């Protein structure tokens, strides 16, 4: 299976820029997607196919990358962005998720 | 507004069965692939199974092949997951989701606990 590796946690101050990385164990073309999950809620799609903003998602969120290295950027970070962020690939079977990056605000 | 609502979760003994349902509304259900994704307590997300819009094609992760069956009733806009021979490692919140390459919308989930 394609393993997706994310940093477990990050802490930033409101108004700052934060980049969350996701590294794949093998190439996934541009078929990397990002989700936000707040405590007690279901995940929500933020970015699809590496860099496309999902409907209704603020433009503060952006995605980049291809192949094996991908980044989700939030600029500027707001208090409401406290959540866990997951990457997910759909190029190789089975579809796999990263372990998640918990974003905390200082 | 797209809505997905899962039901059918609960406490079940190892080796027993459970059937989950996902009622869909707000979109043309028969046009979309559907999926089940699970999340063990305090753990990450794990894709479980997928089904094509017509129901003619189904896909499973290896650990559930032969035990779980995904199906759909397009007339009722409902997705199902029949889970047999349940194991403790199947304990998780089960989400249904729409989408093809990515998961556009997710339901709130239903909790399944496998324990004696």
> Can you write the helix and strand succession of chain B as a string?
EEEEEEEEEE
Overall structural class of chain A, as computed from helix and strand content, comes to: mainly beta
Largest sheet of chain B: 6 strands, mixed
Output the radius of gyration of chain B: 13 Å
Note the run of SSEs of chain A as H and E.
EEEEEEEEEEE
Stretches of chain A where pLDDT is under 50 for at least 5 consecutive residues are none
Which runs of chain B of at least 5 residues are low in confidence (pLDDT < 50)? none
Strand content of chain A: over 45%
Form type of chain B: globular
Annotation, overall tally of beta strands of chain A:
11
Main sheet: strand order of chain B: 2-10-9-4-5-6
Kindly report the average pLDDT value of chain A: 97
- In helices, the fraction of residues of chain B equals under 10%
Beta-strand segment tally of chain B: 10
Query: Strand count, sense and closure of the main sheet of chain A?
Result: 7 strands, mixed
Description:
The complex is a heterodimer of chains A (106) and B (116). Chain A is 0% helix and 49% strand. Chain A has no helices and 11 strands. Chain A has strands spanning 4-5, 9-12, 18-24, 32-37, 44-48, 52-53, 61-66, 69-74, 83-89, 96-97, 101-105. In chain A, strands 2, 4, 5, 6, 9, 10 and 11 form a 7-stranded mixed beta sheet that branches. In chain A, 37% of the residues are buried. In chain B, the strands form 2 sheets. Chain B has a 6-stranded mixed beta sheet with strand order 2-10-9-4-5-6, with no helix packed on it. A 4-stranded antiparallel beta sheet of chain B has the order 1-3-8-7, with no helix packed on it. The mean pLDDT of chain B is 97. Chain B is mainly beta. At the A-B interface, β5 and β10 of A face β5 of B.
